[in-house]
Specification:
The complex is a heterotrimer. Chain A is built from 13 helices and 11 strands. Chain A is α/β, with parallel strands linked by helices. Chain B is mainly beta. Chain B has one domain. Chain B has a 5-stranded antiparallel sheet, with no helix packed on it. In chain B, strands 2-1-3 form a 3-stranded antiparallel sheet, with helices on one face. Chain C folds into 2 domains: 132 residues, Peroxisomal Thiolase, Chain A, domain 1 (3-Layer(aba) Sandwich), CATH 3.40.47; 119 residues, Peroxisomal Thiolase, Chain A, domain 1 (3-Layer(aba) Sandwich), CATH 3.40.47. Chain C is built from 13 helices and 12 strands. In chain C, a hairpin with a 2-residue loop joins strand 5 and strand 6. The relative contact order of chain C is 0.19. Classes of the chains: A alpha/beta, B mainly beta, C alpha/beta. Chains in contact: A-B, A-C, B-C. Chains A and B meet through helix 1, helix 4 and strand 5 of A and helix 1, strand 4, strand 5 and strand 6 of B.
């Protein structure tokens, strides 16, 4: 990995919910920010730069809201930066924040990803009725469902794999006090019987829309060691960072197993010295908004050969008790403030290698992968974090 | 710090939200019902420009023709064209008529539509690769039970009546099967 | 710190409305020209970063469409900021500093013509107390002008002189939109638009974009005979609540200028001051002193494509260094209302 060493020394999350009307927008963000700073044993005064990321501003009806939030985020007199890379934004924002430190220019960077899906209608914001553009009458899930169908055709996967993923993620969410969906009564049958939305995706196999924010504190080597000495919690050292983009519609694109995802993963593994991801990675937080994306991304990220990702799911390998736990936090399927979701993956990976994941901790996790994707499966952001220094 | 302490720290001791408010220096009676929502009506008007390529495409649709544009580097035809080839970044200026026949590259059965134009559910939303084009168009299927739709199925568009034609994709009511053999799915990869 | 330079700059011919083009068609020639300027293709670029705003385009994820103009196939390393391209350049500069890239491509653009810009800009305000009042951006700027006039920091004549000078300078800028100006007395005789601002005190509404190529060390020397080296770059933000700010100063300009190392003599300064009264605030904050040519391009008063006008200032200074007409320059970009957020960059010729 290029540049100076950088580590995650603080993670703070809000309680995710369909509607957080107990707080104003600054209140929501400060809930995450103060928790992250407390975790890092730092105050706002210690922060050199603030990097904010979120998805479309039409979700909240505010243009470039970070301008308004300058005071609330402790940014006055400091550099404030705003990233927007569609659904992968939470991840790419964390990467931009890491770049701030890797460059040697900044020492302690606060980064926040957030979204308030309750403030406006997300589906409306995603698809304005622009007269000369095709209307996506099928909705977001309807966009992705055909690619899932193609995956099933290519891999000959049995029909129930999606249900297994949804069940696993929602049960994992019960161990994550911050998660949006807590469904203690969920079962295989309750998912199977839930309303079919876009075949083969059922209601219970679909991500919710959530309000929430996550904040991370990233620090240079010296600052990370000082923070850890004070807090008693080891840093999550960043071993690799990568992002890739490809066009939305290009001949030769494969939206089932996108090249940008494959290359992003290969890049981040090379930086982190990972040659056998299945064996060397202890836990994965990947961006799975619809159940079937777990087997698809397992292949795309090199954890399984093409056509065999579903077998890992079927065998229970991706359960918390398996040898490659995936989305112990409950994942995007249980919590989805779009602008934050990518950073939640990255933050959860950091929590794992710091031993801070509480009831959804994978014992002995030392190497974790965070993954985010967005747009028409075209933007990818990943990092590898480890308990050891790179 | 013990392992026990570390486990507890995964849940922040800082409570949700309101504690971050400073204590007011003037007594404030929040009453029983603090403000939880503020509704701010907002409306903005935009005059969108389709651009040159889209304009050509939409005018073609008004004549029941599919006009794609060719990438000068790869020779492949993009539809709907946006004026630029996404793989080369070069302007596409050569118009190429494609279709009207097409092949289904993938599809899903929709049980919950979105927007005022959505057909009655369940309906099939599909990707259609017009003959001669390199990428697919979105649309819906008609005149076929949804469980008989297949990847590789050959189809044609069903247009609105001539006196209802406009410069928009809404000229296509839906697509329907035609009597031609399916295209093998392997040939459709990369063109979805 | 690695030596990083701007080695190529291209802009559109900014105009009131590029209504026959969509954003992709508008920015594609600019992207192509910037790359052609160094004989490069996107495969020679290690990192791409763009700046744009959904609210200007009137569409969520609007930047996704314009990625087509880059030709991102095979996949590229690419990011996007919902900010002026000057900040996209900052991200690219940081990336090169990490060593993960030796070359970068930065572009930014907008079409303000589809929407009602002053009304759109009112969405960039405190959503609880200010936004619901729908103050348009011109009236908002007028508050700052009034504060400056009442404090004796400027006069209406000085504001008119700034407007006149900038638009007259634009005569030599082939990309400028508003070229040439009536005399100062004629300007002052015009009616008020939003007292104390007259039409001439305001920026034009522009459609346009800019693209820039960055390269490090020897790569920069290969690509340009006279690279415009970035000797210092920094950005800072002030508070948002105008009731809590002294509107007659822009502290983040001075802070960024200090951190960017603005000292010594400069040949040229390009400041991103959309309203005439703001130029002085920026110059005061930069502290470049007299004897500096200010806004030979005509500045934002001659062409103000949102999300691009800041990067254009950096491009204009770089262009003059690359063509040898300047040895050392300062470029400034602003974001938010009333100079809330500011970026300052010191550019220099030489080896």
């Amino acid at each position: 990995m290029a540049g100076n060493r950088v580590a995650v020394v603080g993670v703070g999350q809000t309680r995710y919910a369909a509607v957080r009307d107990d707080v104003s927008l600054p209140g929501l963000l400060r809930e995450a920010v103060f928790r992250a700073l407390a975790d890092a044993h730092m105050t706002m005064d210690d922060i050199d730069a603030i990097v904010v990321g979120k998805a479309p501003d039409f979700f909240e009806g505010m243009m470039m809201p970070e301008s308004y939030l300058a005071e609330a985020l402790g940014a006055v007199g400091k550099p404030l930066f705003r990233v927007h890379t569609a659904g992968s934004v939470g991840g790419s924002t964390a990467l931009v924040a890491a770049t701030h430190v890797q460059s040697g220019v900044h020492d302690r960077v606060l980064t926040i990803g957030w979204q308030q899906q309750s403030v406006s209608e997300a589906m409306w914001a995603l698809s304005f009725p622009i007269p000369f553009q095709q209307q996506l009458v099928a909705g977001a899930g309807g966009y992705f469902a055909p690619f899932i169908r193609e995956y099933i055709r290519r891999s000959d996967a049995p029909d129930h794999i999606g249900i297994l993923v949804a069940l696993k993620d929602r049960l994992n969410a019960l161990k994550n006090p911050y998660a949006h969906l807590h469904e203690p009564d969920i079962t295989f049958e309750s998912i199977e019987e839930s309303f079919m939305l876009w075949e083969p995706i059922r209601y219970s196999e679909t991500c919710p829309g959530s309000d929430g924010a996550i904040a991370l504190v990233l620090a240079s080597e010296g600052a990370a060691e000082a923070s850890a000495a004070s807090s008693g919690v080891p840093p999550a050292w960043i071993h690799g960072t990568a992002m890739r983009s490809e066009p939305a519609t290009a001949s030769g694109r494969d939206q089932v197993n996108p090249v940008a995802g494959i290359e992003c993963a290969a890049d981040v593994y090379a930086q982190a010295g990972i040659t056998d991801p299945r064996r060397q990675v202890d836990v994965v937080e990947m961006y799975v908004p619809f159940s079937w994306y777990e087997p698809m991304w397992l292949e795309n990220l090199g954890f399984a050969p093409e056509g065999e990702g579903w077998k890992l799911t079927a065998d229970g390998a991706t359960e918390m008790t398996g040898d490659l736990p995936v989305n112990c936090s409950g994942g995007v399927l249980s919590t989805n403030p779009i602008g934050a979701s990518g950073m939640i993956r990255f933050g959860e990976a950091a929590l794992q290698v710091r031993g801070q994941a509480g009831d959804h901790q994978v014992d002995g996790a030392r190497v974790a992968v965070g993954h985010a994707y967005g747009g028409a499966a075209q933007f990818y952001a990943m990092w590898v974090v480890g308990a050891d220094k790179p | 710090m013990t392992t026990e302490d570390r486990r507890d720290r995964s849940i922040s001791t800082l409570p949700d939200g309101l504690w971050t408010q400073p204590t007011p220096s003037v007594p404030v009676d929040l009453g029983d019902d603090p403000v939880r929502r503020q509704v701010v009506p907002a409306a903005m008007r935009y005059n969108y420009s389709p651009g040159l390529a889209s304009t050509r495409f939409l005018r073609g649709l008004a004549e029941k023709r599919f006009l794609g544009e060719r990438c000068p580097e790869t020779g492949e035809v993009y539809i709907p064209p946006r004026g630029v080839s996404p793989v080369s970044g070069l302007p596409t200026t050569e118009q190429v008529e494609v279709g009207p026949k097409a092949t289904i590259t993938s599809f899903c059965v929709v049980h919950i539509g979105f927007g005022v134009n959505a057909p009655p559910t369940p309906f099939v939303s599909a990707l259609f690769l017009p003959d001669g084009a390199a990428v697919s168009l979105y649309g819906t299927m008609g005149e076929v039970p949804h469980d008989e739709v297949r990847i590789g199925m050959r189809v044609e568009p069903v247009w609105v009546d001539d006196d209802q034609l406009t410069e928009s994709m809404e000229n296509i009511r839906y697509w329907r099967p035609i009597d031609e053999p399916d295209v093998p799915a392997e040939q459709l990869k990369g063109h979805m | 710190m690695r030596d990083v330079a701007i080695v190529s700059v291209a802009q559109s011919h900014h105009r009131r409305s590029a209504e026959e083009l969509n954003e992709v068609e508008m920015i594609q020639p600019v992207i192509r020209a910037a790359l052609d300027g160094v004989g490069a293709s996107i495969s020679d670029i290690d990192f791409t970063c763009s700046g744009s705003s959904d609210y200007l385009a009137g569409q969520a994820f609007s930047f996704v469409m314009t990625l087509d103009a880059v030709g991102a196939w095979p996949p590229i390393v690419e990011s996007h900021v919902e900010m002026d391209g000057a900040w996209a350049l900052y991200e690219a500069w940081l990336k090169i500093q990490t060593g993960a890239a030796d070359t970068a491509f930065v572009y930014s653009y907008s079409k303000a013509s589809p929407g009602d810009l002053p009304r759109v800009m009112s969405r960039m305000l405190d959503p609880y107390y200010a936004g619901p009042l729908w103050p348009d951006s011109v009236a908002y700027a007028g508050l700052q002008a009034r504060a400056m006039l009442d404090a004796g920091v400027t006069t209406e004549r000085q504001m008119a002189e700034v407007a006149h000078r900038n638009r007259e300078s634009a005569r030599t800028n082939p990309n400028a939109q508003v070229v040439g100006s009536p005399s100062v007395d004629e300007l002052l005789a015009a009616p008020m638009l939003s007292d104390p601002l007259r039409v001439h005190d305001c920026p034009p509404i522009s459609d346009g974009g800019v693209a820039v190529v960055l390269a490090a060390g020897d790569r920069a020397r290969e690509w340009a005979e006279r690279p415009a080296w970035i000797r210092g770059i920094d950005h800072r933000i002030d508070g948002h609540q105008i009731g809590a700010r002294d509107l007659t100063t822009a502290p983040s300009v001075a802070l960024a200028a200090q951190r960017a190392g603005v000292d010594g003599a400069f040949d040229v300064a390009e400041v991103h001051a959309p309203f005439s009264h703001q130029e002085q605030l920026v110059l005061d904050g930069l502290g470049v002193g007299n004897g500096v040519e200010v806004n030979p391009s005509g500045g934002a008063l001659a062409a103000n494509p949102m999300m691009a006008a800041g990067l254009i200032r950096l491009g204009e200074v770089a262009t003059r260094i690359m063509d040898g007409s300047a040895g050392r320059g300062v470029a400034h970009a602003t974001s938010g209302h009333l100079l809330q957020q500011n970026l300052v960059c010191v550019l220099e010729g030489g080896d």
